[in-house]
Amino acid sequence: MKREIKTTNDGSKTLFINDLNENYHSHHGALQEAEHVFIKNGLNLTNYYEINILELGFGTGLNVLVTINEHLKTDKNHVINYFTLEKYPINESEMNDLAYFELFDNPEFKNIYQKIHLAEWEKSVEIVSNFNLKKIKCDFFDLNTIDLPKINLVYFDCFGARVQPDLWEKPLFELVSDKMAVNGLLTTYSSKGSVRRILQELDFKVEKKQGPPGKREMINAVKL
Questions:
Q1: pTM of the predicted model, to two decimals?
Q2: Can you give the pLDDT at residue 76?
Q3: 37-76 in b/e burial notation, b at 16+ Cβ within 10 A?
Q4: Could you tell me which of 8, 21, 52, 102 has the fewest CB atoms within 10 Å of its CB?
Q5: Is 12:31 a contact under the CB 8 Å cutoff?
Q6: Per-position DSSP letters for 92-119, written without gaps between them
């Protein structure tokens, strides 16, 4: 599928898929959305010495980068093991055009950004001290075949239900739930009523939170 670079309202870039009429991130602001949904309402709500994060899916790598940024700002003695799934990785040209490292003041971020994208797939790579990244090239529905530690935090960042409704139905959420630890947190930009009901059926405590710019609500769900 053809993808093109677009600039969102906060100045950060995203990819747009013409065939689906779908952005990888909110057109209101890619960076704002990632920081609000996955850092403010995800990483910053966890309190573990070692945290295992599962992301669906890797996409442009922006969620990895904002997670590393937060990791470097806080106690670097904590360990993050970050597992991310992606079936259709972006290419090197797209990586260069997105240039997300330019959004951060840290001069090391260009090197960090490149390490994230050039890291070997299926292999755990230490990107910065105590931050280990494993990129897994697979379909999300192959999650049950992947050996993972118990997951403490899920970044559920699939394409929207309008274009990929099967990613927002019970079978995938069941697979994700099976990988999670008790008290693990799932955070997503979605606030669909059907998603809230599915998560409740799977014994999650679901909370509606204020959404990122341009979106009224989003979901946090804790596995009971």
A1: 0.97
A2: 64
A3: bbbbbbbeeeeeeebbbbbbbbbbbbbbbbbbbbbbeeee
A4: 21
A5: yes
A6: HHHHHHH-GGGGSS-TTHHHHHHHHHHS
